């Protein structure tokens, strides 16, 4: 009886830990997915800061331009681009799973490897256009930047990019909160704060683009 009671009182883990699981590509990429979700959060803020500064005037833009031309700013831009593409391809992978395909062991590994390789070696036309636009504008003065961003094509491209970035920023941080914030009150508060903050960032970026394009 005492032995049975001792067995019941023995602390047991709630779920297997990383030290128990054998590292697999799908598991490691799940961890990377969460890390890049946090990276998207800060990368999108940098992009919106750049657009807002361009809409605000030469002085504000000069400060952002100085930062973006540093090695650290360019490194953030590069990492942000990869994180965004990684999330996009990860979303396609999950869409395939939602349709009921790719659940076999080899298929899971193949889809995950394709997502990783694709996120490093591929870019969608929208992302290519935005990066070319940003890199081309970094060395220009404020007047030239305003003129280029005022183009309807550039404005629409940037607007679509902002919507995509903010959505992935929001969903990436939401996954992190749901996985690692265990208190119910703090979890609800964090999810609400993340939603409202993402909406505010999206509206700020969209307003800056519309102001540059249409003079709102």
Structure description:
With 216 residues, the chain is mainly alpha-helical. The protein has one domain (24-214). It is built from 9 helices and no strands. The chain is globular.
**Helix content estimate:** over 70%
Anisotropy-based shape: globular
Say how many strands there are: 0
Q: Kindly state the mean pLDDT as a whole number? A: 75
Biggest sheet features: none
Number of helices: 9
The radius of gyration over CA amounts to: 22 Å
Q: Label the structural class.
A: mainly alpha
Strand content: under 5%
List low-pLDDT spans.
none
Task: Spell the H/E element sequence.
Answer: HHHHHHHHH
Q: Kindly give the count of domains.
A: 1
State the separation between the terminal residues, measured CA to CA. Answer: 78 Å
In short:
By secondary structure, this protein is an all-alpha fold. The protein has helices at residues 2-9, 25-56, 58-68, 71-98, 105-121, 125-137, 142-149, 152-180, 184-214. It has one domain (24-214).
List the keywords.
216 residues, mainly alpha
Task: Note the topology.
Blueprint: H1 2-9, H2 25-56, H3 58-68, H4 71-98, H5 105-121, H6 125-137, H7 142-149, H8 152-180, H9 184-214
Helix pairs in contact: 2-3, 2-4, 2-8, 2-9, 4-5, 6-8, 8-9
